[in-house]
Design a protein that fits this description.
Layout (H helix, E strand, L loop, with lengths): L1 H8 L6 E2 L3 H12 L4 E5 L5 H6 L2 E5 L5 H6 L2 E3 L5 H38 L5 H22 L44 E4 L1
Parallel strand pairs: 2-3, 3-4
Antiparallel strand pairs: 1-5, 2-5
Helix pairs in contact: 1-5, 5-6
Length: 194
């Protein structure tokens, strides 16, 4: 699952999944030296690594309150494909914002260029107001285009949210974490360098 999410959002670094809590924290600290790090987890064991990551993402449906508290983002589904859609949507929002700022700045400079080129000082107010109106219209239309973002990866149901395992299976005594023993790693926990 971790490799599929990485491939879907274009992350080239190999993911680490199914590791012990101390290994998760060490991996996050190691990768943080090279750049921003995201951590996805759902359990108590994921809390320290989620808190240490630049972007901590907790799985909200079956995740623990501690993981949700330590994370910066809570994914309210068990469908990890929605994480890929969120990254794609965030990148599109960033592109739209950068283009909108560039267009707005160019339109703000237009009255000065017009005044210098045409020598028409008396039209300066009209051109300035027109450039403001065009800038506002551009930014609003660009922002409204983001309302039509469709899911690319989670367009169809995956079944991960359909069933919640409510069966309680008794733990064996040697399986229980105790002094000197780490709890088993959460299968949904994964860390990636972004």
């Amino acid at each position: 699952v971790a490799r599929a999410v990485c491939a879907a959002v274009g992350i080239r670094a190999p993911p680490r999944a199914g590791v012990a809590p101390s290994e998760k924290l060490l991996a996050i600290r190691e990768w943080a030296k090279a750049g921003p790090v995201a951590m996805v987890g759902d359990g108590v064991n994921d809390g320290p690594a989620l808190a240490a990551a630049d972007v901590g993402i907790a799985m909200g449906v079956q995740g623990t309150a501690m993981a949700a508290e330590a994370a910066g983002v809570v994914l309210m589904t068990n469908d990890l494909r929605k994480l890929a859609d969120a990254v794609v949507g965030a990148r599109r929002c960033t592109r739209v914002m950068m283009v909108s700022v560039a267009v707005a700045l160019v339109l703000k400079l237009a009255p000065f260029a017009f005044m210098a080129a045409a020598g028409a000082d008396r039209y300066l107010i009209v051109v300035a107001v027109a450039s403001d109106v065009l800038g506002i219209a551009w930014v609003l239309l660009a922002a409204m285009s983001l309302l039509h973002i469709k899911p690319r990866y989670a367009a169809s149901p995956c079944g991960a949210n359909d069933t919640v395992n409510t069966e309680l299976t008794p733990a064996k005594e040697d399986d229980a974490p105790g002094p000197g023993k780490a709890a088993p790693p959460s299968p949904a926990a994964a860390a990636v360098r972004v």
